[in-house]
Write a structure and sequence with these properties.
The protein is mainly β. 14% of the residues lie in helices and 39% in strands. The chain contains 8 helices and 41 strands.
């Protein structure tokens, strides 16, 4: 996923048939490091279950220094449960494994893996009886040298049921840090976190010699609902004129990282506008303008830049937000990290994965590039919801156009993102909420708590019927009643065939095709917009839906081309197992009788993976495909 710093990246256009999935391809190359025959659930090797770290709650206030008497040295911590302190040697995965007393952060030694060839260096900690991570998150002390990526796999309980963390690091970082394992991807089946049998830790880079030191593998308690932080970087006018009201409608606040020297510049908010946002609960945070990376500056110069940026915002009345830094250009080495820890309460830089919640490493919080909706952002949101973690989404200008430039995000895509956060029920919080502990936990409206009551009688009355046809692109306006819409369509042409219902995609196909799609609507005037290069027809019906029609989970379906599954009765979240055997677009959307909509998959080409769906009540699952597909749905 792009970090948005390159002006040629970051734009998110509404072309539904564009190729996506580059992030997943990258993952496939760096997470497949277990041998095919190893399941991870046998417990062979060293059955290290570590010691018991207890719940001393001493935090991470210890300083660097010699490990005299087994004291806790940062970034080791004393919170939570110790899973492994590496007093016993773990299992080597790749590279050369050794143990080092000089590097120990806890106890008498730490684990060291090295690879002179610069491919990968990794180790495995096995748990012969399995460990339960259903209510906990994992972090560890790490010292990467020459590594720009750390991959962590949670085998739960076997190779086909795992979660991964893929954390990107600045190339220049070679010191100690604490790495929080936010879940970035589910490469295969649905994991069972009540039975994690192994944790694999792997460092990779781009061909340089690599060394990774690991210590203090630890579990801490997680929260009871997923969280999201919105970083609207730059202080652009559009964030005040467009985004602020959209967030206020939902009762949300965001953070605005700004260069203090650019406040009031052309196209940027002035102090009065920023103070208005502050009064709405927003954080106005420093994102200092620099002419060279902080990591290239002497330590005293770094401190001056960071302290001045904080002080300038404090002087203008932004004391709360001034505590939180967006690291300039995502560049940081261990010296920068040390200064940041002295000056700020939290710091954010691109890491390409969610964070555990609450985090144990608040000065290297990972953010992702928010406009990359089709390259991982929705997946991150879904995983943060499913596993009660924190996703931090960074955006810049919001523009009301279908042709964004550079790092702009379209209004439609921004609204899509907000709707997705709302539908998943994440708590949208600010950096100050995070450090002050005022982040709640009951979930936002729109999420499901598993308490839906099965309906009786009629869910939807029968409604309107319409026949539409045309040749080439066009639009038609019709009247619809509240309820279900079934659209049976045909297209005679060689190009794309896309049908939108009030701006939301109903059908996305290509070539000569027939099929059917569904959606739920609130009633009233509706617009069907068609993109086509040949003749087409759409038969629209609104059938009655009764409680007797509902099908219980689990269900399995298959088809070819466009189709749908439902109505289904879901008491809470749903675990989906979709597959696709085709070269073109594969889109899976969930529709609820309550009017909710969630895009679950939007990929190009073959697909075989699991996804979570924050359903609750009566739902339909719509499938758009250019080949054969299957869909399994189970309670989660």
């Amino acid at each position: 996923m792009d970090n948005g710093n390159n002006a040629g990246y970051g734009s998110s256009r509404r072309r539904l048939l564009a190729a996506v999935g580059a992030s997943s391809a990258t993952l496939a190359g760096c997470t497949d490091f277990l041998s095919e025959e190893e399941s991870g659930d046998s417990g062979n090797g060293n059955d290290s279950d570590g010691g018991n770290g207890g719940d001393s709650g001493n935090g991470n206030d210890s300083d660097d220094g010699g490990n005299s008497g087994g004291e806790t040295l940062w970034p080791a911590i004393d919170d939570g449960e110790l899973l492994a302190d590496f007093e016993e040697e773990p299992t080597r995965r790749t590279g050369e494994l050794s143990m080092s007393a000089d590097e120990a952060r806890r106890g008498s030694q730490a684990a060291v893996v090295e690879d002179e060839s610069g491919e990968s260096a990794g180790l495995t900690v096995y748990f012969s009886d399995g460990i339960d991570l259903t209510d906990g998150d994992v972090s560890f002390a790490a010292k990467p040298e020459g590594a720009n990526r750390i991959v962590v796999e949670f085998i739960a309980p076997g190779r086909q049921s795992r979660l991964t963390t893929v954390r990107l690091l600045p190339d220049e970082y070679t010191g100690w840090l604490r790495l929080d394992c936010g879940y970035e991807h589910k490469p295969a089946g649905e994991p069972d976190l009540s039975n994690v049998t192994a944790i694999n830790i792997l460092a990779t880079n781009d061909g340089r010699p690599i060394k990774l030191v690991v210590d203090d593998l630890r579990k801490t308690d997680s929260v009871d609902n997923g969280k999201a932080i919105l970083l609207l970087q730059g202080g652009y006018d559009s964030q005040y004129e467009i985004a602020a009201d959209m967030l206020e409608e939902r009762g949300w606040a965001a953070a605005v990282p700004v260069n203090p020297e650019a406040i009031g510049a052309e196209g940027r908010m002035d102090v009065t506008q920023l103070q208005e946002l502050r009064d709405r609960g927003w954080d106005v945070c420093p994102n200092p303008g620099v002419t060279m990376p902080l990591s290239d500056m002497p330590k005293d110069r770094q401190r001056t830049v960071l302290e001045n940026a904080k002080a300038t915002l404090e002087e203008r009345g932004f004391e709360n937000g001034a505590r939180h830094l967006l690291v300039p250009d995502d560049r940081m080495d261990q010296t920068t990290h040390e200064v940041v820890r002295d000056v700020y309460d939290t710091a954010y830089l691109f890491g390409s994965c969610p964070n555990i919640m609450p985090p144990t490493a608040q000065h290297m919080l990972s953010h992702v590039w928010g406009p990359s909706l089709h390259s991982g952002v929705r997946r991150h949101v879904n995983l943060a919801d499913q596993y009660n973690q924190l996703t931090v989404l960074r955006m810049q200008e919001i523009v009301d156009t279908d042709e964004p430039e550079g790092d702009e995000m379209t209004l439609d895509e921004f609204e899509h993102l907000l709707n997705h956060l709302e539908n998943r029920g994440l708590d949208v919080i600010t950096p100050s909420d995070l450090v002050d502990g005022s982040y709640g936990g009951e979930g936002a409206d729109g999420g499901t708590d598993g308490s839906a009551e099965r309906p009786e009688g009629t869910i939807f009355e029968a409604g309107q019927s319409h026949g539409l046809d045309g040749n080439g692109s066009g639009s038609e306006t019709v009247e619809l009643d509240e309820g279900l819409v079934v659209a049976e369509f045909s297209h005679e042409g060689n190009g794309d065939f896309v049908v939108e219902l009030d701006g939301d995609v109903l059908t996305a196909a290509s070539g000569s095709t027939t099929g059917e799609s569904v959606a739920t609507v609130g009633g009233g005037t509706a617009e069907f917009a068609v993109e086509a290069d040949g003749s087409w027809s759409i038969e629209i019906t609104q059938p009655a839906v009764h409680a007797d029609d509902l099908e219980e989970l689990p269900v399995e379906r298959s088809g070819s081309g466009s189709g749908y599954v439902g109505p289904l009765w879901t008491e809470g979240g749903v675990s989906l197992s979709p597959t696709h055997d085709g070269d073109g677009t594969f889109i899976v959307d969930g529709y609820g009788a309550d009017g909710s909509r969630e895009q679950i998959v939007n990929k190009t080409g073959s697909f075989d993976n699991s996804r979570s769906y924050a359903a609750g009540g009566t739902v339909w699952i719509n499938v758009e495909a250019d080949g054969d597909w299957t869909l399994g749905a189970d309670p989660s």
